[in-house]
Amino acid sequence: MDLEALRFADFSKLSTAVADWTAMATKLWELESDARGDLGGKAAKADWAGVNATVTREFIGKTAKEFADAATEATSIGNILRDTHGELVDYKARLNEAIRRGLDKNLTVVPAGNGGFTVTMNIHPDRAAKGTTVPEHTEADATALRDEVQRILEGAAESDATAAQALTMLVSQTPYGFSDAAYYDRDRAADAMKDADRIAKLLKTKGDDMSPEEFDKLNADLAKYKDDRPFQEQLATTIGPRGLLDFWADLADPSDGGTLQRSRHDQLGDFQRNLSLTLAGATQVTDSPAMRTWENDMVKLGEERIQTRGSQVYGYQVMSNLMRSGDWDNRFLNDYGNALVATEKKMKLPANYWNGGMPPVPKMNFIGEDFGRDPMTGFMTALAASPNAATEFFNATQPIDNAQYVLGDRQTFDDTPLNTKDGNAAREATGAALVSAATGVDPNNMTTRPDDLTPEHRQVLDRSLKYLSERGDEFPSEMRDDMAKVLSAHSDVVHHSASAMSDTPDDPRQLDRHHLLEVSKQVSRDQNSYGMLNEAMNREMIKDIHAEHPRDPDETLQDAGRTVGFLEEARYQALKTDKDDPTWEAKWGYHGFGGAANFIPVVGDIAQRGVDALAYQWQLDEQARIDAGVQDQNAKTFTHRENQLRALSEEWAKANPGHPYTPRTLEQEINTSAVTGNVAAKGLAGAQ
Q1: Distances in Å between the alpha carbon of 454 and those of 58, 311, 457, 489?
Q2: pTM
């Protein structure tokens, strides 16, 4: 900073700006409260339907959030300006005080051009007025004054520059909206930018040659800034896509003698998560031109080979392992995923392609057991955490039908060679992403429940039923529980379709019953998945019985029976398939069917009592089935469903008081419907 600029600076306009931004932030927080409580609250409680359910409500939700982001950004700007104003005023006062003290020793500070200055005598003794005593000074005094003024100017320049950098980064994140990054003072903003530059330099210049102590601080810093968008963008864009890939490939390769693989091996998983969270946050800076360039360049680098000392890896393999944590930008996920699928379709044999390095590709993943050689695993893990992106990905048919490829055509390989008895990691991750796509809920986040299902969620359901049913008994065992969750979340249309008398092409609610039966069979090959599906359908049948219907209430009893018959045929088909290899436990223990809670629809209090009673009777039937060893014959299909069917008829009687039927006729009615549903399902199985 120039000497004269600071010495005679007028900070009144900056002071006014601080006051204006503070007032603006106060007003915006008031508007945010109104938007969240009034506008957002009414939107959340409204009974939306049709286009309003997907478009208008989403618009209102985004608008309410924009008020919060606007208030946050205004607060951050005001805080940065306030601190900068205070610091510059202080630096000005310190400068003038230093100059005043210099005069006491006959020293003055004068501009020297180009922003510089010199320290010289104020009055030469030879030119002093007669009788005037000139204060004495030493060379050390002049040097001390020069150094003090230099420190003050450098401090003021840094204060000004870091404030400008923080403000620019804050505002450039969202040229067409508002940033949700919050800074409570200028120093925090300045420190974030400095740390981002320091970390990027460390990763570029030292890589895995950094000391264990440097690694520990690096890991702590990444955790510290896990919610700081400007820091994340600065770090990502400074190191750049290729620098990032080079760093991780080098870190993962133990052949170069780096000490981190040995000294900090147990901490590499945490570091991988923290780095992934940082990069994911950076991609959320959606309107940043620098990050758009970063994302596009990263996708282009996917097919490139990254050379390490001991091997070669592909960009996709490296990057996918850095996508296992965090909430990634939807556009980037789909651009990346579409490119990855296109690459694999082109290579035809992913197993050979991804294992083609000589010597074998090193372990690139330190979270879980898989080695990280299959890039689909990390990508699908990221996709599962972003339900909207997952829905878009699984519904995309151009340039390639993604669902057909990842659910039907794709070949997998064992990426956990140290554990040959586990499932396939890529299929596990793909199943989780499918759940996210079809339900709108990340299955790995147990704190959320699904919003209203949309036509796009239904489209994912239809497409997944088609491609997975076509695999028959080659249906991936890793996805049985995932499809149970999907069918549970869509239990209304599953019940509607399972209870249908015939295929009705003009019924928009009806699923393809052939596909539904085959997938239900495959789900039923796993005890936990079977239990999850049936628990959801029990709830749906009770919910249907208690709902207000403008149709004959007898239909709800008949529909329940036909659905039970449909599910029983699916279970019987599963028993026939696995009769030589039973995998169920000897005892049917009710354990809530892990992972189901977020996907099984909630019913009202009255209906819940019926659900509890039905669940008990159904489990008695299931235990009786296991005790009897029923595996290969279906002659008395409903011997082991009688408790469930009776409980359903009793619940129907409670929901329809005053009906003319006796308990016996009701039980007969639902048993007849169950046989009808079972026969219809047999026909579907035979027609495949």
Answers
A1: 12, 46, 5, 12
A2: 0.77
